[in-house]
Amino acid sequence: MLRPASSEFIELCRSQISLLTQSLGASLSAVYLTEHHLDRSFTQLIPIAAYPDRATPWTELEEIAFLPYEGQFQGLTPSLPNSVDPKLESTDSEVLPQSHQLILPLVKQQMLMGFLVTQRQDRQWDELEREQIQQITNTLAIACLLDQRGQWSEHRYQQQTELQTKRHELLHNFLHQFRNPLTALGTFGKLLLKRLAPADPNRAIAENMLRESRRLQDLLQHFNQSMDALEQSDRTLESDGSEASEQRLLRATPSLLPQLPPSLGQISLTLKSCTIEEIVASLLPSIEAIAEEKGLSLNCQIPPHLPLIEVDPTALTEVLNNLLENGIKYTPAPGHIYLQVTAHNAQNQLLIAISDTGPGIPPEDLPEVFKRHYRGVQAEGEIPGTGLGLAIAKDLTEQMQGTIKVFSPAAYPPKATQGTTFVVSLPIP
Predict the structure, then answer these.
(1) For each successive 10 residues of the chain (429 residues), what is the average pLDDT?
(2) Which one of 21, 49, 306, 333 is CB 3.0 to 4.6 Å from 13, fit for a cystine?
(3) Whole-angstrom distance, CA of residue 26 vs CA of residue 119
């Protein structure tokens, strides 16, 4: 639950009502804030500042019950007060039978937040003095609104921090539980390879199982490193929460503020010379199995003697695997998936085209397909997805100094009226 007021706001109230005594000769002044009861049965007034200071700043609280906006106390929330009549914001809002005593509501943006109560014994308030008191009331109303909003934002920030901590704990628990069966799968793959003869047709399946388990191990290690870097950044930001640090940050330029690691969320690539044939050969067995299970045919057209390319083999495998699996996912049986590779020596580019005979991508979705979590019209269908595969493929391709484009209808087969083609262009060194 939020506090009625911060210490800063209370100090402001004290300074403002002390002016009433020093400048206008008030004998007693107090500031009350509205506080809503938990069972919503009533709203009470909480005294937060008085001048001169007393244990009970105002003893005649029953007089406030005669205010015409008494009914507005119903339905107020602990965080921000509810709306009230806009007429309460007028300078004529002071009301009480006694002429030496003024009670003015703290109202801003049609919200009643409390009251300023002041009196003096020796004389009545003239019009100029009433205007000055109204200005003080308006200042307190603005400050109260900002204070309540600041407390609400701080409360929400604390809730989000707690939620983020719980999420981190859940992820760490999941990763710990995920690591053991993953290690076991890798061990089973090694044992299976030892039991299969080199000519056994099942050996390729076992090799793919072992390769995929290693790939998952690498991704798991990268994820752990990213989580550690993110938590370290959180601790750095939290350590700057002191008052001295806040002042230093306010004076600092944006370039001096705490920054997240630039590599956070990115896979560190190691480029080396390799052939496209060996990349495709490493992923074809699993892709062929997935396509066959769905009733699709996979057609590869890779001419011999293609030039070497400078890429990260793991990253390029991930790119092609995402594009091929994406085509398989959205192509109904019986359909076809095409993988074609050509070299444009004049432009020093190796082109890898992946086409399908699926329904294609609507024109309005084409400019957005590489955005993270964007699924477009597919989000309305029954095929599950996260909208991350194409975004990851684009990011990895660009890290290898390449480009990726999409065409729909597909560029292959010729004169296709549906389907999709993704073209990955990589530089030839």
Answers:
(1) 77 90 87 72 78 55 36 35 39 45 87 88 87 92 90 86 79 72 80 87 81 80 72 61 47 44 57 92 84 92 93 91 91 94 89 95 91 77 75 92 94 91 94
(2) 49
(3) 6
Q: What is 139-182 written as a DSSP string?
A: HHHHHHHHHHHHHHHHHHHHHHHHHHHHHHHHHHHHHHHHHHHH
Name which of 247, 225, 275, 321 is nearest 428 in CA terms.
Answer: 275
Q: How many CA atoms within 13 Å lie on the side-chain side of 81? A: 30
Q: In what order do the strands lie in the sheet with 111-119?
A: 43-51, 28-36, 111-119, 101-108
C-alpha span between 328 and 355 (Å, rounded): 10
Distance CA 406, CA 393 (A): 12
Task: Give one DSSP letter per residue of 12-31, joined into a string.
Answer: HHHHHHHHHHHHH--SEEEE
Q: Please say whether the beta carbons of 120 and 27 come within 8 A.
A: yes
Q: Give the three-class secondary structure for 376.
A: helix
- Range 272-427 classified under CATH 3.30.565.10: yes
Identify the CATH class of 7-153.
alpha beta
- First vs last Cα of the chain: how many Å apart? 64
